[in-house]
Amino acid sequence: MQASGGPGGAQPPPPRTWWQRNWKWFLPVSILGGLALVAAFVGAIALFVFGLFIESDVYAEAMARARANPEVVRALGEPIVPGFWVKGTLEVNGPSGSADFAAPLTGPGGHGTLYITAQKKAGQWRFETLEVAVEGMEDRIPLTASGE
């Protein structure tokens, strides 16, 4: 008489757990999914921050002046398309604020950078610096009238 349940006295192995059956695909998928979520979160924050610059009235005014300036149009061509990667600071607190940033510009004839430094007082922006630096040109193109 034998005490074991199987032939030759061997016990069947215990059933494998879900983790033991699936870890080889679950672990990499979890890590990659977590990295994708972090990248999406960082991307959403970047879109929000750059959107604040692009939607600001000081940026809109500066872009309108750049597109209307004949020297800028001659240097970059038409249409002048603003780039996405705006660098700098923009602070607005009701009727006052300050802006100091650079925005890339592209046209069929070349690339440039729009430089903006402005102060907002009593709800109105006053440009201290508003000029376009075009790649390959030594001098910058001013977009402000004298005394502005």
Description:
With 148 residues, the protein is of the alpha+beta class. The protein has a domain at 56-142. The protein is 38% helix and 31% strand. The chain has 3 helices and 6 strands. It has helices at 18-54, 57-68, 70-76; strands at 81-82, 87-93, 96-107, 110-121, 124-134, 141-142. Strands 1, 2, 3, 4, 5 and 6 form a 6-stranded antiparallel β-sheet that branches. Strand 5 (124-134) and strand 6 (141-142) form a beta hairpin. The mean pLDDT is 88.
Give the radius of gyration: 30 Å
- Main beta sheet: 6 strands, antiparallel
* Average pLDDT figure: 88
Please state roughly what percent of the residues sit in beta strands, choosing from under 5%, 5-15%, 15-25%, 25-35%, 35-45% or over 45%: 25-35%
Order of helices and strands: HHHEEEEEE
With helices defined by DSSP (H or I, 4 residues minimum), what is the helix count? 3
Helix content: 25-40%
How many β-strands, per DSSP? 6
Low-confidence stretches: none
Q: What is the global morphology?
A: elongated
Distance between the terminal alpha carbons, to the nearest Å? 108 Å
Structural class: alpha+beta
